[in-house]
Specification:
alpha+beta, D-Maltodextrin-Binding Protein, domain 2, Dipeptide-binding Protein, domain 3, 2 domains, 10 helices
């Protein structure tokens, strides 16, 4: 950490990280001498720290936006700016067998890394989630409106697939976002051969099974993130009602990441944010990034059409948006139908800061692009 606006000073585990202004920063030494990241146990503790004046700059969970707005209305020296995030909250489905994680390519040269020309490798399939009917049924089961209004407290909006709406030229407006349709979900499962078995789930509903395999899945997310935990509870309730047997697992974030990148999971509630104004998402949906322990294609997704579109979208001369757009719009349709993720919503992100922090101009693409110009009044 030597080329950015701040350089490292110290890290105290579970307490804080301290940075100091970098006099060699290309944009000039920041006006703020010291930047301290405080660690809080959960979002409620973060809010308490903000209201107590311990924090000058942060974002708050969607359940607390109304609290901040109320404080502002009553004369507190707080500010808030909201904007749709360049990211999304989603449920990711592992399409490969979590008991046998594999890289997504045939490692012909044996170096453990993808090399140009190495073809995709047929994965050992997940015993349940490799069935696209199961994934499509879950996509029709989710109460997206309820999640946005009740869990995200209205601080979000629907989306269709993998390109966020802020990239207007590449977003596919011809696709309707999934909406809850429990009859459709039940019919998809029945048509795919999933029938009630003798065992029951927590809702006392017979667990569906097919060829001796129960519709039992683990759904993990990071403990302490109240929004994601509540999504997990709602999702379990509706899926159990259809005959799934969902086991919730709220665990420490580092363990979530370890299981995620290690591809040792069934389903995960998580999100991506802070993305660039660029629709190429090879890092998430290309087989070359299906790398155990490192790759962001941790769901082991492969679709030959998607691969071809990604390659062509990057090779358009001059990167002309109107010529690139059809490739990414096609990919959204492919991913919409394949359901490697259920895209729950685009968060309505926020930035909160105190009056004494001057010069801040947050925007969706870079919250701190001019951080060296910020100043802190006494």
């Amino acid at each position: 950490m030597v080329s950015g606006p701040f350089t490292f000073v110290e890290h105290v585990a579970d307490d804080h990280v301290t940075l100091t202004a970098n006099p060699s920063f290309y944009g000039g030494k920041p006006n703020v001498d010291t930047w301290t990241y405080r660690v809080y146990a959960d979002q409620s503790a973060e809010l308490a720290g903000m209201l107590a004046g311990e924090v000058d700059y942060n974002s708050v969970g969607p359940q607390f936006v109304s609290v901040i707005e109320g404080q502002i209305a009553s004369g507190d020296d707080l500010n808030i700016q909201k904007f749709f995030s360049n990211g999304y909250t989603f449920i990711g489905y592992n399409l490969a067998n979590p008991a046998n994680p594999q890289n997504g390519w045939d490692d012909l040269d044996g170096d453990g890394k993808w090399t140009d020309g190495e073809p995709p490798l047929a994965q050992d399939p997940h015993p349940v989630l490799s069935d696209v009917a199961v994934r499509q049924a879950m996509a029709y089961s989710i109460d997206y409106t309820g999640i946005i209004n009740k869990v995200a407290f209205g601080q979000g909006g629907p989306t269709v697939a993998n390109v966020w709406p802020s990239i207007t030229w590449a977003y596919n407006n011809e696709i309707e976002p999934y909406a809850q349709d429990l009859e459709m979900a039940a019919q998809i499962l029945a048509d795919a051969g999933w029938v009630p078995g003798s065992a029951t789930n927590d809702a006392d509903v017979p667990i569906l099974e097919k060829d001796g395999v129960q519709l039992t899945l683990n759904l993990m997310t990071n403990a302490g993130n109240e929004t994601r935990e509540n999504i997990g509870v709602l999702t379990k309730d509706v899926l159990d009602g259809l005959g799934f047997n969902i086991q919730l697992d709220f665990i420490e974030f580092g363990t979530v990441v370890q299981k995620l990148l290690g591809q040792e999971f069934d389903m995960v509630i998580i999100g991506f944010g802070g993305g660039p104004p660029e629709p190429d998402d090879s890092s998430q949906f290309s087989y070359v990034n299906d790398e155990v322990g490192a790759g962001f294609n941790f769901v082991s997704y492969y679709n030959a059409t998607v691969e071809d579109n990604l390659a062509q979208g990057k090779s358009v001369p001059g990167c002309v948006e109107t010529e690139r757009a059809p490739f990414y719009q096609s990919n959204q349709a492919e991913i919409y139908n394949d359901v490697p993720y259920s895209f729950l919503y685009i968060p309505l992100a926020n930035t909160v800061w105190r009056d004494r922090l001057q010069g801040i101009e947050p925007n969706p693409w870079s919250l701190r692009y001019n951080i060296e110009q910020w100043s802190l009044e006494p």
